[in-house]
Design brief:
- With 259 residues, this protein is α/β, with parallel strands linked by helices.
- The chain has a seven-stranded mixed beta sheet with strand order 1-2-3-4-5-6-7.
Length: 259
């Protein structure tokens, strides 16, 4: 199955070089790069990407990658997007001990065994292997037992394919999944009356407003946390600029008296 979605936008770029990394990050040293977006560049080889030892956020989506070998040295990597590539395995990611979020939709992962390498990642909470909005998937997602197998293989996951499976809000996703299953037409031949069965426990709806409120509170909390992080970064940037201006001002004053 060939992954669907956006195609490489820049022709001629095949392998990652130090010059490419510096031009896309604005950093002079590879180990100073924390965030990197290399999306849709036609990459087939990760080159020297493994030298970005402090990299925390990486987007490699929309390329033509078949292996992730150099990523094994990125121990600080927390967020990784390798969607819409040609990957048949994720083994190098087993060394990315701080990985929290992985998007591997739109690749060639065919069996649950190819996810076994992720089982030792204690921080991994978000995993995406298919994305209906962009029509990206993996062959293993076609299995009826795909969802259950992934949950059993990686019990620490909180979100699979954008749906929360544990923690606040997971009940809503499970409710929608049960409803979808109950509305799916029967595959047995001939018309047959189906006995109506309740698909939620008695009293479920009495607690529904509290669950909705919990979801809203969690969303608001996450938004406030993100906003506070932005404010902190803005404050740090202002402090750094002020220090730079203060450090440069004596030099400017001295040079003004030179004839």
């Amino acid at each position: 199955m060939e992954p669907l979605g956006e195609k490489p936008a820049e022709a001629g770029v095949l392998s990652i070089t130090a010059q490419l990394l510096k031009s896309h990050s604005g950093e002079f040293a590879l180990d100073s790069i924390l965030l990197l977006k290399l999306r849709g560049l036609g990459l087939v080889d990760l080159g020297c990407l493994g030298e970005c030892l402090n990299l925390e956020w990486l987007d490699l989506s929309g390329n033509a990658l078949t292996h992730l070998g150099p990523l094994a040295s990125l121990r600080q990597l927390a967020v990784l997007n390798v969607s819409n590539n040609r990957l048949t395995g994720l083994e190098p990611l087993a060394a990315c001990e701080n990985l929290q979020s992985l998007n591997a939709a739109g690749n060639l992962l065919a069996t649950p065994g190819q996810l076994q390498c992720l089982a030792g990642l204690q921080s991994l909470e978000h995993l995406r292997l298919r994305d209906p909005l962009t029509r990206l998937s993996n062959p293993l997602c076609a299995s009826p037992s795909y969802w259950a197998v992934v949950r059993e293989l990686l019990p620490g996951l909180k979100v699979i394919d954008g749906e929360r499976v544990s923690g606040q809000g997971s009940e809503l996703y499970q409710l929608c999944r049960d409803l979808d299953s109950s509305l799916r037409p029967s595959s047995s031949p001939g018309p047959r009356a189906m006995e109506v069965q309740p698909w939620v426990e008695p009293g479920y709806w009495e607690s529904w407003p509290l669950q909705s409120s919990s979801i809203l509170e969690e969303a608001c909390r996450q938004f406030q946390d993100t906003l506070q992080e932005c404010l902190d970064l803005d404050r740090q940037a202002s402090d750094i600029l002020a220090q730079a201006q203060q450090a440069l001002s004596p030099a400017e004053t001295t040079s003004s008296f030179v004839f």
